[in-house]
């Protein structure tokens, strides 16, 4: 959790900047949420990004997300989406 605490502190430094205040508050909120759900040896955070490849990469990322969430459901693991971004073309 040291990494999350460090990121929270970095974002708190940005609160005095009027242009970055809203972004910093949103990031702090997201990090605080992550911090509350993390428990040693019981949590995995998985990040899936489409990256380069256009529409096909997006489809592959969707398939990976479905695959991992079904795997978790089959193992009776709890899944919580921390953040998601969908770009429609």
Q: What is the number of independent domains?
A: 2
Query: Secondary-structure element sequence?
Result: HHH
| Rg on CA atoms, Å | 16 Å
Largest sheet: none
How many helices? The count is 3
Estimate what percentage of residues fall within beta strands: under 5%
Task: Describe this entry's structure for a reader.
- The protein has 2 domains: 1-39, no CATH class; 44-89.
- It is 56% helix and 0% strand.
- The chain has helices at residues 2-13, 21-37, 54-74.
- Helix 1 runs antiparallel to helix 2.
- It starts with a helix and ends in a 15-residue tail after the last helix.
- The model has no long low-confidence stretch (mean pLDDT 87).
Lay out the secondary structure.
Layout (H helix, E strand, L loop, with lengths): L1 H12 L7 H17 L16 H21 L15
Briefly characterize the structure.
By secondary structure, the protein is mainly alpha-helical.
Question: What tags apply to this protein structure?
Answer:
single chain, 89 residues, mainly alpha, 0% strand
